[in-house]
Putative cytochrome P450
Amino acid sequence: MSDHSGAGSAGAPPPGCPAHASAVPLGGLQYQQTPSELYRALRREHGAVAPVLLDDDVPAWLVLGYPEVCYVTSHDELFARDSRRWNQWPNIPETWPLLPFVGYQPSVLFTEGAEHQRRAGVITQALEGVDQFELARECQAIAEQLITLFAGSGEAELMSTYAHALPARAVLWMCGMPQGSEDTEQLVDDLRISLDAGEGDDPVAAYMRVGARLTQLVKEKRESPGPDVTSRMLLDAAALTDEEVVQDLISVIAAAQQPTANWICNTLRLLLTDERFAVNVSGGRVSVGDALNEVLWLDTPTQNFIGRWAVRDTQLGGRHIREGDCLVLGLAAANTDPQIWPESHVGAENSAHLSFSNGEHRCPYPAPLLADVMARTAVETLMERLPDLVLAVETAELTWRPSIWMRGLSTLPVRFTPSVH
């Protein structure tokens, strides 16, 4: 509840405050496995902007409507990225699980106005220097190496051995890390742990190691620049400090790695479980590109993004949003908004989805193109190397990771005819 909530009766929030009685907890099994049903229910009950509760019953607004998400992301003067504006900070415990996502850091993610344009401009210039054909070749080489590790066994769990590993190695190659070295492999592993910790992992320690290794990389590239993203960021006329480059490199790598991994895996799931693709991929009528695009609409890797913070009291979707309120961008809900898809037909043929967000803070161009190169190469190379790839379990046995933020499978077990290359 915001600091401006004194207008309500004692102990009850005023109308429109996100902590009101009908606020829905963002979590639970239904959310994790079938979020689209929850979005439909929220939309029916609350409209385009719903009051929700984050971990520990912290109130926020979930923006479900496509026009509303576009409005929030294109009006930075009303809905800003600097989380220090949040009116809930007095109620947030130090151990709050979402602190890594909302705790202010001096990275491009939390900058605003001219400073954001300066920092995002450096990233854009650095990414524009990546040759997409060279990236595709590198991704194919990485894919071949990873497939060779399990091709002879006739079975694999693709989430950990392939979908996560490929974009991590590819983005580190773009940043100038030496391929195949022991410390690059350690960094790949630490990235996985810090972004997607499993049982027994220590994500905080892994994140500290990632920061330390990237600090070392920036120092190396400052002394001896090369044809890579890190060097281009350091040499940019905007003259970023080493610390700024490290922070923004972490943002670039995190944005490239886990969403792309889930994009790859969700696309493989679609290809392996949907008869339209099973029949047609070999016949060439429905392409891998169509599958990749359909996943961005219907199973987008980043389903929700936290967030924006209201700069002042304002209205959105018929709701009174108070200064300092937190808004969660419901990218997956917006992509399936019935207002833009009459008769609930979601067509994969256009690419006006919000999977890379929108406005000033969207993924900087050409990041979506580079992610597409990684995902497309990963899927196509696997299908070519292992043409009889099938699921090793029933479709209904596949489970989604318990996350309201990312949409990705826990595991993707497959079988195929063993091949020795």
